[in-house]
Amino acid sequence: MDTNARVFSAPGKALLVGGYLVLDPRYKSYVVALSARMHAMVSTARPMDQNKTSITVCSPQFNNEKWTYNLLQGQLSVDGTNKSKNLFIECGIRNALDYFDIQNSMGFDINIDIFSDPAYHSSQGSIMKQNGMKRFNFFNSSISEVPKTGLGSSAGLVTVLTTALFSVFDPNLDLTIDITLRKIHNLSQVSHCQAQGKIGSGFDVAAATFGSIAYQRFEPNLISDLPERNLSAKDYNVSLQHLINDTDWKFTVEPVKLPDQLRLFLGDVNSGSETVKLVTKVKNWYNLNLPKSQEIYKEINAGNMAFIASLNEMNQLSLTNPEKYKVLINNLNKSNKYEDPIVLQMRESIAKIRDNFRLITRESGAEIEPPVQTELLDTCMNLNGVLVACIPGAGGYDAIALLTTEMTNLDSQTKGKEEFSNVTWLDLQQVDIGLKEEEVVAYLNLQ
Ligand SMILES: Nc1ncnc2c1ncn2[C@@H]1O[C@H](COP(=O)(O)OP(=O)(O)OP(=O)(O)O)[C@@H](O)[C@H]1O
Ligand SMILES: C[C@@](O)(CCOP(=O)(O)O)CC(=O)O
């Protein structure tokens, strides 16, 4: 590795409220950034052939799989030695080259190593390697074969990859500058959206960049209106630069923080759901059932807003009346039956959201909160220290989310119980910060 290496990391996410509605720019969502992060270490080296530049992305944890792309006379081609396609990597590289208008060989090759923190994947069959600063799970399988927990690895990957390439093409890159962060965000959204088939709201890329946020999306046509790259590379590059640098995306990212002494638990539920299929079914149901479906969305949105308001009230109370706040937290620690007006409001708002998603589940055939998850969430609501339990993101059979007091020990309350036999509590906390630069030494000599 060259001494010019740099490392960037970005957090995973949990969409606590706002699933489906956030696909429409009118509705606000609440996104918690997580302590599990994706990382990209980038370095450059002189190529043997000065007329050719290659960009190689390696995933040391997943069988050391490599994806190489060659830039020759302004054309980027996929290297014949790649064992599989990785659209997230390919779109990230193509858009970064287009944005910086890199036409010719740069006189060096670019190497990027990707690392993902343990919580992104089920740890079964892995070996942990560490160096006293970082620890990562290593698998003997390729990335597509290892079950994921749904924390947004692809959004994190695209965001750190884009940042790594920014740092090569603009060596003065400084992530503390807001406009720089926005450009990286915009470019990452374009790449992630193209790779994902233009389905998502972009909340995951926004959290990877900006951390925990109240998020309202940009208009989807910002990206879908880009010209076809295949028709004219020049048109595409100019439009892309204009979109990234000079266009107001009109999205909202307000920094948020879970109230003091509360924490988010995510339970991985050992099966999985396909977000794309769920979204397609819900969209069909929505369009076929207007105006009733819009009324249901309004109900859910009222629940979402009330939930966010109750988090804000708790934050306020912890600042303005710490004594009263302490009593509230202590009472919650002792019993889940404790009723305080703010806690009641929070529980009622989640109940309203869940009621409506169960209705959509029945009517649309999209299993957002199927009966087994209802049973599990209701059981969680009886555990001590639990304020609310819900299905994060698209719902389905992926995961459950619990907001609890910091003192709550879910392991001891659920261990050995049949109802929780499929649930693995992930080792995670909420974090405030999004994209950041890391120390290179923290990634060396993992063993
Ligand atoms: N460490 C990695 N190395 C290489 N590619 C990765 C890595 N982590 C994720 N990816 C890419 O991201 C894809 C997974 O993205 P996908 O959007 O399906 O899941 P996710 O983002 O983790 O979860 P979700 O979309 O449910 O939030 C992988 O198939 C692979 O292409
Ligand atoms: C259904 C949706 O609103 C949320 C999907 O969330 P997740 O990928 O299941 O965490 C889609 C989106 O916003 O991209």
Automatic annotation (TrEMBL):
PROSITE patterns linked: GHMP_KINASES_ATP (PS00627)
GO BP term, example: organic acid phosphorylation
GO cellular component terms, semicolon-separated: peroxisome
Location of the GHMP kinase N-terminal domain: 143-211
Assigned EC number: 2.7.4.2
SUPFAM superfamilies: Ribosomal protein S5 domain 2-like
Domain of life where this protein originates: Eukaryota
Matching Pfam families: GHMP_kinases_N
One Gene Ontology molecular-function label: ATP binding
Catalytic activity: (R)-5-phosphomevalonate + ATP = (R)-5-diphosphomevalonate + ADP
Annotated NCBIfam families: Pmev_kin_ERG8
Family: Belongs to the GHMP kinase family. Mevalonate kinase subfamily.
Descriptive protein name: Phosphomevalonate kinase
Source species of the chain: Naumovozyma dairenensis (strain ATCC 10597 / BCRC 20456 / CBS 421 / NBRC 0211 / NRRL Y-12639) (Saccharomyces dairenensis)
